[in-house]
Design brief:
- By secondary structure, the chain is an alpha/beta fold.
- The protein is about 50% helix and about 15% strand.
- The protein has two domains: about 230 residues, Spore Coat Polysaccharide Biosynthesis Protein SpsA, Chain A (Alpha-Beta Complex), CATH 3.90.550.10; about 70 residues.
- The chain has eleven helices and nine strands.
- A hairpin with a 2-residue loop joins strand 6 and strand 7.
Length: about 300
């Protein structure tokens, strides 16, 4: 873990190391005209280039960003956080960035903490750095509890501690930019990227950050929608990444249920000479689900193996 930098800019850190780097920041934004200017003004003090991905905003988010010197990528309609982050990653790779910093456009993150988030990469100690909200004292209880549950579902660790998988304040090295991508469109993209980074063997660490929930509209969705979106995004990623484990495990559970209820049906028939419809239906239904789930896993595993072989 790292302490938040008390003073200094990225320029001073780079000068000390004598390793010039192209450090860029990318900000996904959707209708953030109230806060985007403040975020960009402070971000610009710590990076060489800035990008704002205007994800279908109906306000002046993109126009304000351009006036403040940021490059702007516009999506014709709102595609979601995953699509916005994919545009951020693609842009950073295209311009040959050495370090990409991502942060939220709603003022939740403090851009003046960028030096702390980038430092482990500049020091050669990490490939992906997460700005962790764990040490922030003003995180609402429901956010803290929900975040911990989702973090453990993701199960990506740094220093044997499950990382803050939902934090959007991150830094990526050039190495990680070449290995991670985002397929998920919704809020589960943060977890997906970390799981891809873990599978690629990238070094992941955290630095403590402060977070503010005082800015207007720090979340476009309620807590339940956010949690469900992340959860199903993680489930989808795991089902594609490990189809036999995911579908095979479900198939095994359904098979056991089918056998248990089937035996109860036969036992009742042997004793009383008639079939209990409810028990029989559960047994047959579970057996069908077990069969379908198993072959779904086999088909996906085969397709994914072929795709990986052809790459």
């Amino acid at each position: 873990m790292y302490e938040i930098a008390e003073a200094g800019t990225l320029t001073e850190i780079i000068d000390q190391q004598k390793k010039p780097k192209l450090i860029v920041a990318a900000v996904p934004a959707f209708n953030e005209e109230q806060t985007i200017a403040k975020v960009l003004i402070h971000t610009g003090k710590h990076v060489d280039k800035m990008l704002v991905v205007d994800d279908g905003s109906s306000d002046d988010t993109g126009l304000i960003s351009e006036k403040l010197g940021a490059a702007v990528i516009r999506h014709e309609r709102n595609l979601g956080k995953g699509a916005a982050l994919r545009s951020c990653l693609d842009w950073a790779r295209k311009i040959g960035a050495d370090v990409l910093v991502t942060l939220d456009a709603d003022g939740q993150h403090d851009p003046n903490e960028i030096p702390s988030v980038v430092a482990p990469i500049l020091n050669g100690e990490a490939d992906v750095v997460i700005g962790s909200r764990r040490l922030s004292t003003n995180v609402p209880v429901h956010r803290r509890l929900g975040g911990r549950i989702l973090d453990h579902a993701t199960n990506v660790r740094a220093d044997d501690v499950v990382v803050d998988a939902q934090s959007g304040f991150r830094a990526y090295s050039s190495k990680s930019l070449g290995l991670v991508t985002a397929a998920e469109y919704g809020m589960g993209v943060d977890s997906e990227i970390l799981m891809r980074a873990r599978d690629a063997g990238l070094r992941i660490t955290e630095v403590p950050i402060h977070v503010s929930y005082e800015e207007p509209r720090t979340s476009k969705h309620n807590a339940v929608y956010h949690a469900l979106d992340v959860f199903f995004g993680v489930v989808k990623f795991i089902s594609i990444r490990h189809p036999m484990l995911f579908y095979g495990g479900f198939s095994a559970v359904m098979f056991v249920i089918s056998v248990v209820f089937g035996l109860q049906t036969l036992d009742y028939y042997g004793r009383w000479g008639r079939v209990v419809t409810n028990l029989a239906l559960v047994s047959v239904s579970a057996g069908i689900l077990a069969f379908l789930s198993f072959f779904t896993g086999v088909i996906l595993f085969t397709l994914i193996t072929v795709i990986r072989t052809e790459k």
